Amino acid sequence: MGHLENVALRTVKRKIRSLSGNKIPVIAGHKLLYTCNLRCKVCPFWRRIDPPLLSLDEETKMMDSLASIGVSFMGFEGGEPFLRKELLEILKLSHERFFTSLVSNGWMLANRIKEVREYVDYVFVSIDGVGEVHDRLRGVEGSFERAREGIAVASKEVPLSLSSTITSENTDQVERIVDFAREMDVSVSFQVVYDYSTAEKMFPSSAKLRGALFKLLDLKKSGAPIVESKEYFESVINSWYNGKGWKCKPWLVINIDPEGRVVLPCYALSEYTGSKRVWEIDLPRVWNSVDWEQYETCNKCALSCYLEPSLFSWDNFSMVKERIIDNMLSYIVE
After folding, report:
1. Which of 78, 219, 319, 325: disulfide with 224, CB 3.0–4.6 Å?
2. What CATH number belongs to 26-49+58-333?
3. Does the global pTM surpass 0.70?
4. Which contacts (CB < 8 Å, 24+ apart) does range 13-21 have?
């Protein structure tokens, strides 16, 4: 429970700092590497060559810098994180400082989860369709069955959700993916694809996307195990179809690339291009020197890592219950 106490303390400190008008990130994402064993159509990152990766000492400096300004949640991704040879040591370092999550394609999960289970609080496994649809989108035959095997094993060890990206090739799969989540007794997270300049263009047609979003909203309201709030789906529908945008707060999320560099202003607009190493700069000054107001009406992506924190309000009891109370109770019980 020690790291949860640290999370709570940083939350209080962050609230106090915010009263002075400072922007303080809550969530951090860190790509451990770009290398991946799959070849997903929508992903630009496996197409990149890995730079020299951080040493454990540099990973420690990076995490200490983030913890010192108030970050409470750390999410590791790639590429495929299980291809990073120092993964166990990195997760240990993170678990001492943050509530720690990991995004994997599931290929190596069944064999590796017991190695890391003590140091990861949540795992997301990418599933973009059922059976052949998933394999086609992931670019490697057998990906779905390997992911299924990993989910079956890992969900008994750690809290786990599927993570699904809605594209032009799977809008008709969203209900089947929810059914698969029920079958595996896990939850599922959905977000809409963002068309990166160096990946295949797979944004769905307006009509098909609208249908998928309304289907997911209805499923959410009926109690389906969908991670996103109903406000997430309502906000995307209202912005992209009804002309009523949401106020984006990208400053709540800070991303760090494989070289330890800060990604500004956000994951999408910069296409994950870093600037300066986080431990070598005055991070609070750099963070608060950005003109964040110009991005409030962007609404160009629907990445849930940005949209959900932007929508969160302590005045909305259903969101507080779902995001804070229920999650904390489930963690304590486990």
Report:
1. 219
2. 3.20.20.70
3. yes
4. 13/70, 14/70, 14/72, 17/70
